[in-house]
Amino acid sequence: MRNNRPRVGKYILDSLSTGMYNHPLMLIREYIQNSTDAIDSILRTDNFNKKRSKIEIKIDPNSDSLTISDNGTGIKSEKAWSTLHDIGKSEKSITHNRGFRGIGRLGGLGYCQILRFITKAIGEKKYTVSTWNCEKLRKLIKENNDFDTADIIKTISDFKQFDYLKNYGDHFFTVEMLNLQSSRDILLNVPAIRSYISQVAPVPFNREYFSYANRIDEELKSKVPNYETYRIYINGEQIFKPYNDKIILRGKVKDKINEIDFTLLNNEKFTLAFGWLARLNLLGSVSSSSLVDGIRIRHGNILIGDENLLSEFFREKRFNNYLVGELHITDDRIIPNSRRDDFEDNEQREMFYEHFIKEIGIPFSKKIRRLSQERSKQNRENKDNNLLERANLVIEKGFLSFSQKEFMIRNLEKLKERNIIDNKKFINLLINSMEKTEHYLDREKKDLSIDKKELFKSIFEIIYRRSFNKKNAEEIIQEILGYIA
Hints:
The chain is of the alpha+beta class. 40% of the residues lie in helices and 18% in strands. Strand 1 and strand 2 form a beta hairpin. It is elongated.
C-alpha cells in the first residue's frame, strides 16, 4: 500500500485552463510572462544583444488564430518533452523568474481547438513541435471514462522533433492558438488586446508623450531588482504603457501631471516596494478610458490584479482612482498568487498593505477630502457671489420673467437663512428691491405694442420655466432681446 501513488484526475486540466484564467486575456499575460523569462535567461547565458530581443503577437481574424513568439532561450531538445508535458514542475527560480509554477502554458487549452508549441534552443540542429488537441480534451473530460490527467495528456498531445534547415544559431519559442473560441471573440479583438497588454505587460513608457519616462526608468532600475522592459509588438505595432502628461478625468475634465514623486515602502529591516506617484491637482476620479486610473501594483514589472486592487485601503474606495502611479514589489517574499490577482497570504503581504495604508492610503484620503471641502466652499462662495450679481442686475434692468423673479427671491432667502453673509440687512434690501422691480419689457421696451410685449413675456416665461440651467435660460432670453426692434 505504501508504494501506491495517487492519481491526478482529468478535471485538473480544466481547472488549470479556464478555471485558473477565467478571462481569456489572462492567458496572453501568462505567455508574455514566459517569454520575458526566456529572454532574461538568454541574456544571462549567451552573448545576446538585448536590443534584438522581442515578443511578437500576431492576431489573424481571417484564420481565427493567435500566435505569440519570442527569441528567448528556447527549450533544448532533450528537455522539451518534460518541459512541455509535465504539470506543476518547473526549473525556474521563484526569486529570478516571473513564472515558476509550471502551469502557465496550459492557459490556452480552454480557448482554442488546437494549441501548438514550437521551440528551438541556440546551436541545436533540431526543433520541437508539441501539438495539443483541445477539442478532444474537452470531449474526454465530459465523457464518462476513467482517464486521469496523464492519460488525457498522452491521448490529446502529439510530440515531434524535426531537423532545422535554417541557421543553427536561431532560438525561439512560439505559441500557436488555432480556431480560437472566446466570448465575443475577445482573443481576436486587436484594440482590446493592445489596451490590456499596455497596462499589464512589462512594456516601456512612451517617451514621446510621457516626459517623466526617463527619470522613472532610471529610478526603478536603481531601486527595483531585475526591473526590465521588453519590446512587445501586436501585428507589427510596438506597445507602450499608456501614461501621458495629460490626464483625463471623469466628465471630460482635464488635469496635468505637475511633477513625479518617488515613494518607498519599508519597515525597519526590509524594503517592501518602490514606486512613483504623479503629482496631480486631485480634482476628481481619473477616467477609466485613460487606462492609468489608480495606483497599480507590479511584480517583475507585470501588473498584479487591476486598477482597483488597492482601493479598499483608502477611506473611500473611489479615492484610489484620483491617483496615478505604480508600486513595484522589491521584497521577494511578497509572492504573486497563481492567478496574479493578489499575493499569497503571508506576513510580508500583510506588512506591505499595512505600510501602504499608513503612508499612502490614509494621507491621500485626508488630502483628497480636504481639497474637496475647500473646492466645495469656494464653489459655494462663487455661487453666492454670482447670485448677488444677478440679483443686482435684475434690480437695475428688470426681471426677464416672473419665474426668474420668484427664483431669485427664493434663493436670496436661502442665502440669508444659511447665515454665511453677515450683512442680512443688505440681503433684505435686495429682496425688497426685487419684489418692487418691473419686467424688463415694461421698463426698457416701451415702444413695443402691448400685444408684442405680452407675446415676448410669454415666450420668456416658457424658456425660463422649462430650462434646467437658469443662467443659460437668462442668456438665451438676452440673446432674443438683442433681436427685438
